[in-house]
Amino acid sequence: MHLSSDLLPVLDIISIFSAVFLSVSIYDYWQTLQTVPVFSGSHLWQAALVAAILAPFFLYDKHFGANATRITTGKLLRSHLLRFMLYAGFVLVLESLSSVAGSPALVLLLWAIIGLTLTSLNRLLMTYIVRRFQRGGQLNQTIAIVGAGRVADRLVHQLLQSHSKTTEFLGIFDDKIINPPQTTGKAVGNIDDLIELSKTRKIDWILLALPPTADKRMSEIVERLKDLSIPIGLCPEHVGLTIPYKNVDFVGDTVHVSRLVDRPIKRWNAVIKTIEDLVLGIPITLCALPVMAIIALAIKIDSRGPILYKQKRHTLNNKEFDIYKFRSMRYNPNPSAQKLVQTSRDDDRITRVGRFLRASSLDEIPQLFNVLKGDMSLVGPRPHAVNMRTEERLGNEITSTYAHRHRVKPGLTGWSQVNGARGATDNSAQLYRRVRLDLEYIENWSVMLDLKILAMTFGVVIKMTNAY
Asked: What local confidence, expressed as pLDDT, does residue 27 receive?
């Protein structure tokens, strides 16, 4: 639904340009019939560019996708008509004050009529697409409720009574459930069960149905659930009641929630980052294939065992995946029998070829395939091995924000690595710094930051800092 709201500005820009072209063409044709000099309208294209750029600022409606599933088409078009009248009036005032003043009134009238028609058709088309997806179930939102009490009871009742076709109620999760509800027929568990379920089920919203007096407990729950890349909403205490209140966001068709936590990289930003990984990842992988072949041959000659090494790492939402690396250590046919230990300097498990590969980071090249598979990004927090320990403790035992790194995909390189936090984390201070840098990257992500990190990575690799 959000995507439909974001697509409309693009369609509107195209429509405004088209309206100028059509209005000028129609006016020229009418002039030809009247055997008068043809009005070329060539000086209007600069004004058309300005008008097209202004269109999204006046016509954009961020709630369009949600409204398309809730209100009638007539109300949607009336709302757009008011926006367009304000927009057209502003453009005409600018036209009268600019160098293109004096354009035929009929051209301007035709532009307004055609522009309104085309932008209205855009909304009719997007409304049809959204409602068709809604009927097909593609817009279903899966909702998990945290909290068992009167607020949760009213929320569940409203969700079940609304008969919404866009809402799937997953269940109630609370560490303090004593008498679980018997009428919902949905799963009931604790917060840990919800976190575990998120690894296998798509969850679109986690709604906190807790009284406002439980602020300390609410903060603790939010802190635990922030590890997940799932929006967390706070249901108002009066959810389900008929008294009016200000809505902040919508879940399904009727439930209003206040957004507390959001995905750090979402919607168009997520699309852009995926495109970035493919546009850069594919050519880099193709260029790296000859180097990979040489490395594979060197590994095979140097020591027995497989060329590639796979290890479980954490990715988005704490899910696990197999990361690929060139094998740099002596082959162990039964690795599960040994305790997982971070690599240290002068580690006797590392082979001769492996020592060079690790120092130069060439052992990481196969992770380009993880990027193309979608398990990783080119840039992001480096994925740590599952159950990796620092000072005999897990990362989340050292810092409560450790798992917040998993709110985005891990990266082949990252902000930590180009800022000196590369290699093993031998002590808590090193882990704290790496986590802080990773979270700094997540909160400030941009395409330019990714490109900057990629450029800085070459310098770090050449220096071979903290790589062993």
From this structure: 79
Rounded Cα distance, 168 and 58, in Å: 35
Helix (H, G, I), strand (E, B) or coil at 334: coil
Summarised one tens digit per residue, pLDDT across range 207-254 is: 988 877 778 888 888 888 888 888 998 887 767 665 555 556 666 656
Q: What's the pLDDT band for 267 if we cut at 50, 70, 90?
A: confident
Judged on CB neighbours under 10 Å (0-12, 13-18, 19+), 161 is exposed
The pair of structure tokens assigned to 287 is 């260029």
Nearest alpha-carbon partner for 41 in 57, 60, 21, 56: 21
Kindly indicate the confidence band of residue 35, based on its pLDDT and cuts at 50, 70 and 90: low
380 within 8 A of 408, measured Cβ to Cβ? yes
Against a cut of 0.90, is the pTM above it? no
Comparing CA positions, the residue from 366, 430, 14, 402 lying closest to residue 226 is 402
Q: Where are the domains of the chain?
A: 2-136, 141-261, 267-463
Residues 358, 467: contact at Cβ < 8 Å?
A: yes
Is the CATH number 3.90.1150.10 carried by domain 141-261? no
417 close to 458: Cβ distance less than 8 angstroms: no
